[in-house]
Design brief:
The protein is α+β, with helices and mostly antiparallel strands. 15% of the residues lie in helices and 40% in strands. The strands form seven sheets. A six-stranded mixed beta sheet has the order 22-23-24-25-29-30. Strands 1-28-27-26 form a four-stranded antiparallel beta sheet, with no helix packed on it. Strand 3 and strand 4 form a beta hairpin. The longest helix has 44 residues.
C-alpha cells in the first residue's frame, strides 16, 4: 500500500527578539537561521549544533528584511533607517553599510549567483547593487507609491516588484525597463516572488488573497481565498509544487499548486504570522510572528507520494501545536502541557476520515479537520460530513480547553522571559560595579 503523506511537525522554537519578527531565512548549510525584527536587531540562531544565538546590533531602526547569500557567507539586512547592511554571520557580527535610498528599505534579496542585491524602498524605487564592490549600480523607478518587495527571477534576467500603488511590475534587468504591469490586486501587495521555474509569480495581498500569474502570457492562473486576514508573506517549495503563506489571521497555510487546493492549516503563532520561508532543500520551513516566536518545522509531506492522501482527504488538515517543547523550559507547567499532549495524542481519525478503513494515527500534532472550508466555498464541514453532533461538540470543547492551556503556557513563558531579563540586568549591574 502506498505510504500516506506525513504531516508537518514542529521541530524547534526560539525566542530572543523583543518585538515583532519581520523576516526569516535559512543559511544554505542548514546550520543557521536568521531573523530580522522591529526591535532593530538581526539574530542568528545556530541550529547545528545548538549554540547560543548571535544578536547583531547596528541598525538604528526596525529591520524589515533579511536574506543569506547563496553561499551562506554573507547576510543582508534592510532597515527603516534607510540602509542595507552586509553581515558576516559569525560571532563577531562585522558589517558594512550600503546607502543610496532616501526612504525606508522594505526588501532585500541576493541574485541566485550571489553577485547582485536588489532592494525596494518607500522612496518608490528599486535599486540594484554589486555585492563584491558593495556599490549602488542603478535604479528602477516607475512606481508611484512605496515599493514593498522586489525579487530577482531564478535566471537573474528579470526583477518583479510589488508596490502600494496596487501594481506588480516585471522589469528587464538588462534594459532596465518595465516590460509588464499587473493591476489585478484589490488591495496593496505585501509580498511577491517568482516560482522556482521562473514562469510565474505569486503575490500576497492585503485583500486576504494569494494570486499566481503566468508572466509569459500575463494571465491569472490561480486565486486563493484561504485566509481571513491580510497575507504578509509567502514562500515556494523548491519543487514548485507547494506554496506556504503567513497571515494576520495567525495561521500558516500550505497550498498544493498542482491540485489547486489548501493542504494544511498550521496554528502556532499567538497573533499575526508575519514571515515564512522554506529551506533550500524544502525539507524544513520556518516562521516568525508578532508573538516574537521563531518556529522551525519539518516539512514531511514533500517526501512521500501523496496522491492517496489527497483522494482520502476531502478537506484540508488543521495542525495544532502541542507544547512547543516549553515543558523543558518551564518545569512548573509540565503537568498542564502533559495534559495537553495526552489530548493531542488521542486518535480522532474515526471522526475526521471519510474512509474509516484507511485510518491514520497522526504522529505529530494533528488534532482534527476543523469546520473550516477553503474559501470561496465557506461552508460548514459538519453538514453532510457524517460526524455525529455529540462528537463534534466534544471536539469543539477539547479545542477550547487546548486554547486555554496554550494561553496559560504563553503567560508562563512571558513571565520566565521577564525573570531572565531581570536576572541579566542584575548580572550586568554587578559586573559594572
Amino acid at each position: 500500500m502506498t505510504s500516506l503523506l506525513e504531516d508537518p511537525s514542529l521541530e524547534q522554537h526560539f525566542k530572543g527578539h523583543r518585538d515583532t519578527i519581520t523576516s526569516i531565512d535559512f543559511n544554505a548549510n542548514m546550520k543557521q537561521l536568521a531573523t530580522g525584527s522591529m526591535d532593530s536587531c538581526v539574530m542568528i540562531w545556530n541550529l547545528k549544533p545548538q549554540m547560543r544565538a548571535y544578536r547583531f546590533v547596528g541598525h538604528k531602526d526596525a529591520v524589515l528584511s533579511i536574506q543569506f547569500s547563496p553561499s551562506g557567507h554573507l547576510l543582508a539586512s534592510a532597515s527603516r533607517d534607510k540602509t542595507v547592511r552586509l553581515w558576516v554571520p559569525s560571532v563577531k557580527g562585522e558589517s558594512t553599510v550600503l546607502k543610496a535610498h532616501t526612504g525606508t528599505i522594505r526588501s532585500v534579496q541576493f541574485s541566485r549567483d550571489g553577485q547582485l542585491l536588489v532592494t525596494a524602498s518607500d522612496d518608490k524605487t528599486i535599486k540594484v547593487w554589486t555585492v563584491h564592490r558593495q556599490k549602488f549600480l542603478f535604479s528602477l523607478s516607475q512606481h508611484i507609491n512605496w515599493v514593498r518587495c522586489a525579487k530577482f527571477s531564478p535566471d537573474g534576467r528579470l526583477i518583479v516588484s510589488a508596490s502600494d500603488d496596487k501594481t506588480i511590475k516585471i522589469w528587464d534587468k538588462a534594459t532596465r525597463e518595465c516590460i509588464y504591469s499587473f493591476y489585478e490586486h484589490g488591495g496593496f501587495v505585501n509580498y511577491v516572488d517568482f516560482h522556482p521555474n521562473g514562469t510565474c509569480i505569486a503575490a500576497a495581498g492585503t485583500d486576504n488573497t494569494v494570486k499566481l500569474w503566468d508572466i509569459r502570457m500575463n494571465k491569472l492562473l490561480q486565486h486563493y481565498r484561504v485566509h481571513s486576514a491580510v497575507v504578509n508573506c509567502l514562500s515556494f517549495h523548491p519543487t514548485g509544487n507547494y506554496l506556504i503563506t503567513a497571515s494576520n489571521d495567525s495561521t500558516l497555510k500550505i497550498l498544493d499548486l498542482l491540485e489547486g487546493k489548501l493542504l494544511y492549516t498550521l496554528h502556532g503563532h499567538q497573533g499575526p504570522a508575519t514571515c515564512v520561508v522554506f529551506s533550500t532543500a524544502g525539507d524544513f520551513f520556518a516562521s516568525g510572528g508578532s508573538d516574537e516566536q521563531v518556529m522551525v518545522w519539518k516539512t514531511n509531506f514533500d517526501a512521500a507520494n501523496y496522491e492517496e492522501k489527497l483522494k482520502n482527504q476531502s478537506q484540508p488538515v488543521n495542525c495544532v501545536l502541542k507544547d512547543l517543547e516549553i515543558s523543558s523550559q518551564l518545569p512548573e507547567c509540565a503537568s498542564k502541557t502533559h495534559a495537553a499532549e495526552q489530548l493531542l495524542k488521542t486518535d480522532f481519525s474515526d471522526a475526521v476520515s471519510n474512509f474509516p478503513s484507511q485510518q491514520k494515527k497522526y504522529s505529530s500534532n494533528i488534532l482534527a479537520s476543523e469546520s473550516e472550508a477553503a474559501l470561496p466555498f465557506n461552508q460548514s464541514h459538519q453538514e453532510g460530513s457524517g460526524i455525529p453532533s455529540a462528537l463534534a461538540s466534544t471536539l469543539e470543547h477539547i479545542v477550547g480547553q487546548l486554547d486555554v492551556l496554550t494561553q496559560t503556557v504563553t503567560i508562563l513563558e512571558q513571565r520566565l522571559t521577564l525573570t531572565e531579563d531581570k536576572l541579566r540586568e542584575c548580572l550586568d549591574n554587578q559586573q559594572k560595579s
